[in-house]
Amino acid sequence: xxAARVAHLPLxxxxxxxxxxxxxxxxxxxxxxxxxxxxxxxxAGDWRVESWSATGEVADALAEFAGWHPTVQAIIxxxxxxxxxxxxxxxxxxxxxxxxxxxxxDAAHAxxxxxxxxxxxxxxxxxxxxRCLADAAPATVxxxxxxxEKIRQPRVWQVQRAxxxxxxxxxxxxxxxQRARDARYAALMAESPWAARGWLxxxxxxxxxxx
Length: 211
Ligand SMILES: Cc1cc2nc3c(=O)[nH]c(=O)nc-3n(C[C@H](O)[C@H](O)[C@H](O)COP(=O)(O)OP(=O)(O)OC[C@H]3O[C@@H](n4cnc5c(N)ncnc54)[C@H](O)[C@@H]3O)c2cc1C
Fold this sequence. Notes:
The chain is α+β, with helices and mostly antiparallel strands. It folds into two domains: about 5-85, no CATH class; about 105-210, no CATH class. It is built from seven helices and five strands. It has helices spanning about 60-65, 70-80, 105-110, 120-135, 140-170, 175-190, 200; strands spanning about 15-20, 25-30, 35-40, 55, 80-85. Strands 1-2-3 form a three-stranded antiparallel β-sheet, covered by helices on one side. The protein has a two-stranded antiparallel sheet with strand order 4-5. Strand 1 (about 15-20) and strand 2 (about 25-30) form a beta hairpin. Helix 4 (about 120-135) packs antiparallel against helix 5 (about 140-170). It is globular. About 15% of the residues are buried. The protein binds flavin-adenine dinucleotide. Flavin-adenine dinucleotide binds next to helix 3 and helix 4. Flavin-adenine dinucleotide (FAD) binds next to helix 3 and helix 4.
């Protein structure tokens, strides 16, 4: 939604995640702060539609987060429209290439968006793939693709696993495990929000070690 629709809310210029039993809510700025996007993850119930363009109702989203923090409800209430996505998880694929053909992005490693990494991993794939192909002579393109797979698979499998782990971590019911999680996250935020994710954000697709 345009930033003007939430100008009355005390939102910082950071990405925010709100975690609760069985669901979570993320909001972040895009286009240099001109728009706010939110992603609200809720149990699917009976809804089963595989689409990139299905629309939802703001009232339904509000109902899903009834009783949550007023900021969450105010953000949802400020939206003009919502879209709905079914989330489908896939087991990691061990083969991406056949001869001179290969896959990258979601086709190679669809993952739950619980690390916000699907598109990022596709971009990393592209950088490494370009380098592997540039290094390969035309006669050895298949070797270049094998090298690309070898470099990229351990990386994306780690991100896929971390995304899957967050299904549990993000959606813990209230209780000891949830309190321990919150304390762990609070300590990390006090130290540095990026400290625990150095393995993720420190990846350099151009470094010799990654290809
Ligand atoms: C709710 C949600 C939140 C997300 N949040 C983040 C995030 O914060 N950060 C992040 O990095 N990622 C995020 N992702 C993941 C990200 O959207 C995907 O990982 C990314 O779009 C994958 O890009 P891709 O190019 O591999 O595939 P796609 O974006 O799926 O592109 C494939 C394209 O191919 C087209 N196509 C399919 N079949 C054919 C055909 N036969 N002929 C021609 N065209 C065809 C499709 O229409 C589509 O346009 C999120 C995903 C969801 C669902």
